[in-house]
Design a protein that fits this description.
The chain has a 5-stranded antiparallel β-sheet, with no helix packed on it. A 5-stranded antiparallel β-sheet has the order 4-10-7-8-6, covered by helices on one side. Helix content is 8%, strand content 38%. The longest helix is centred in the middle third of the chain and has 9 residues. The two termini are 26 Å apart. It contains 2 helices and 12 strands, in the order ββββββαββββαββ.
């Protein structure tokens, strides 16, 4: 299994189903550099990407993010911003755990016995509805991205993307 952390197709103006010429290289153990170059002479377009990640001796198991904290309850107050797709849970603790694990979730509401995840943070009067809300207060430092065994999770990945069009080279990142 591989996880895409950067897709050059989202940054270049030309992305065919298949490039006519491609080369790739991976230098591991001590350097952590990946290089991919692709070019199609028939349309004179292509790209080169170099990704560099410093190798650390620190185990990825040693990083433990702080717990996500929620303010509230705000009885009689709702939070706008439904999640797409809508996400629900049966208990407050499972809703807060699901919110903590879901990028874009910033609050939990209880209405009609159902806990729903919300994308917004603004607490608004419930408009007569029996609703209670909890808002995530430390979103910036409580989320842990999924970890896959055997991958060295360095705090930084540096990427340089060079788009080629005829005789022109454009550096995107």
């Amino acid at each position: 299994n591989q996880t895409i952390i950067f897709d050059p197709a989202n940054y270049v103006t030309y992305w065919p189903r298949i490039f006519e010429h491609s080369k790739s290289a991976l230098v591991g153990r001590h350097v952590g550099v990946a290089n991919v170059g692709s070019f199609s002479p028939s349309v004179e377009r292509g790209f080169e990407i170099v990704a560099f990640s410093p190798i650390s001796n620190q185990s990825s198991e040693s990083f433990v993010p702080p717990s996500c904290e929620f303010s509230g309850p705000y009885t009689g107050y709702d939070v706008a911003g439904d999640m797409e797709p809508p996400l629900e849970a049966r208990t407050l603790s499972s809703a807060q755990a699901l919110c903590a694990a879901t990028v874009g979730c910033r609050a939990v509401t209880l209405e009609g016995g159902r806990y729903a995840l919300r994308a917004g943070t603004e607490v608004l009067p419930g408009g007569g509805h029996a609703v209670t809300s909890w808002v995530l207060v430390n979103e910036d430092n409580c989320r842990e991205l999924p970890r896959i065994e055997g991958i060295n999770y360095s705090p930084t990945v540096l990427i340089r993307l060079l788009e080629q069009s005829g005789n022109l080279s454009l550096i995107h990142i």
